[in-house]
Amino acid sequence: MSYQAEEMDLRTFFHQNYQYTIPRYQRNYVWTEKEWEILIEDIFYAVKNHQKHFLGSFISKKSNSSSNGYKRELIDGQQRLITLNVILFSLIYLLKVYSEKFSSSRIGDRIEVLSDFICFKDEQSVEEVLKLNLENDEYLKLSELSLRDNNIEIYDAFFKKKDTISIVFTYFVEKFRKLLFENENNLDLFINFQKTLLDIKIISITADNYLEANTLFEIVNARGIPLKTMELLKNYLLRFSDDYKILDVENNNWNEMLGNLSDANIDCDIYLHHFMQMYYNYTGTKDKMYSFIKETEKASSDENKRNLFACLVNYHKLYIDISQNYSNIRLYEYILLKKIRLLFPLVLSLEIQFKRNILSKKNYNHYLEMILCFMIGFNLNKSTTNNINPYIIEYSHNIYLANNFSTVEKEFYSFMKKISKYYPSNKKMKELIKEIRYSNKNKTAKNINSSVLKFLLQPRYLEITKGEDWLDYNFDKMNVEHILPDDMVNENTWKIGNLLLLSKKFNNKLKNADYSVKRKKLLSYNEPYARNFAEKNEVFTEEKILRETKILNDYIFKTYNFDVNEIDQMNNKILNQKYISFIQKNEKAQEVYYTKGIESLIQMFDNMEECQELKLEGALQE
What we know:
The protein is of the alpha/beta class and 622 residues long. The chain has 28 helices and ten strands.
């Protein structure tokens, strides 16, 4: 690896006639008051104790153009270099403000010294060149004011603006005003601060190409906010784009993605982890993601790397939809309710295939319903997710790679077959449902929380009130009410048949009243399920609790039963040798199978067999 590394102070670094540019793919300026405060404290500590401060390394790449030999692309050090330049702007401003208080020649000398660190003269064009060329209007205006204008009133506009650079500038102006200029010896203190600032030690590392620069960037732990894997990945992937117009678009798309994930309170590295499980069949941990991608993509074409970039950006909105359940899908609601994030790669792969029109709406909904039914039984059985996580990763990858419906179908049913061994038997499932208990009085008896209970009962309530168009249940704002009072020792009062879902406001009116009092209020309640219940139960006893419990238990089993027989039958059909042979010998059969799946293929096969039998019968009759 060819690079030059040199230890130097900031004075030497700024006196070099190099212009540093920040690549478009780099993250935005993200330092906040926390980082500014730490930097200032470190410098003043060095002033007080006559020490030298070390600010880490700055990594840059040489320009490829001989005519732009003074240009360097800054790969690492963006946050610190922008901050240092704004510090210079703020110090120059304050010197201008306090110029009347001191000898104008001393002030002029100080301003000239600091200005020399902001720009230099190009030997060929004799034009002034900014040492940090930042594509930011406010930064460029401040640079111009610092170098040219002594009219401090022009600066006033910056103190009212809310853009990042103006906020940083305002912070340092106020900070240095208090620390350096509001005492008798302020100019001497300023001179000591300036000297300590410029004496700060750094290591300047210059590489010949992007590969070396980015390799060094990963190795060196410079001062600053730790980069997330997604930020490292952005730097790595965008360097394979040479077209600046495309680079701008891709950079904006990436930043929009990070903003969308942040707005949805999603850690971008968690999204990346789930994406990689689907995209690569990645089974590693989050801290190894970047090294895995680099190693995997090392020999791949630039086009493949750009495809990875595009997929990450394109699929993030689908991921957000799943994580926020914007589509109002029952499975997604349950995933969020139970915090089953390990399912995200699988449902993302199905969502992608649906958006690709490989999965029909009917099959897509059916697959999601099957996963939901499995997970409800799986959770009621208190099974551990470690058992199914490897299968989720493997088959989310296989489904994602599929380019036709038959492959999606085959992989999905193969996945369901693998995990079906962790689903309780029908007998066990009925027992688990029968054992559902909910009590606020006896916490040890309670084995289900109100959110899951409301989720299980939702379809029943919606089914009973079907056709009531005006009705809009908000189950999040409903409470679980015990019809007969919740009792510390009476098991029957904990059973599901003794429970009603009611609005919190109405539930508070009932409190612990007798059933006769509750019934009168329920009859007047503007909600069909509760009113229906009161109409058919003039009195309510423990015997009726048992009857209602049986009805609801049977309903829950029927609604959420995971049909293991369907899984076995579908896998047997897919693997049936006669259908495989039929596909191999018949082009039309291939088309039907790839686009419509095994059931349509079997229908075609049966129809053709029937035709052949009719032809054979006709030939025999002749």
